Fold:
Amino acid sequence: MEYDNKNSGALFPAANMDVYRQGKVDVEGVQREMIITQTHNNQNGETYYHVYEKVGKVSPNRKKRDEKSPDMIGDFETNTHGVYMMFGKKRVAKESGIEFTSIGIKKKDDQPTSTAHTQNQSGFAQPSPSTNDEAQEPKPDNPF
Structure:
């Protein structure tokens, strides 16, 4: 049976990546927050850049019920509906030993009328062994 990773994923320390620029951009009358990252590709010796748009924010889950409750929570709007993001921090991939942050996403309509802080969410994604082989150590002050 194939693993279902819908609405879940894993985030790793960014390999050779720095925030290069950040700011607010007017896009057709709508103000958006964007960043440009600078990435150094050690294999090709090239530097390249990516543009990202802010979609939401996360904060510590101050109402954790148990160890399976998310460590960080947040929300954002997709093109059709709002979603909650739930993060588990400082997990370690079994085969590679690399630290990662698991993420689960739920449609806001699927949540009870209470806040996301009260949810007991488990089932975060486990990364495949080949994911992000060039990951760097996380920054010491990184909450994830």
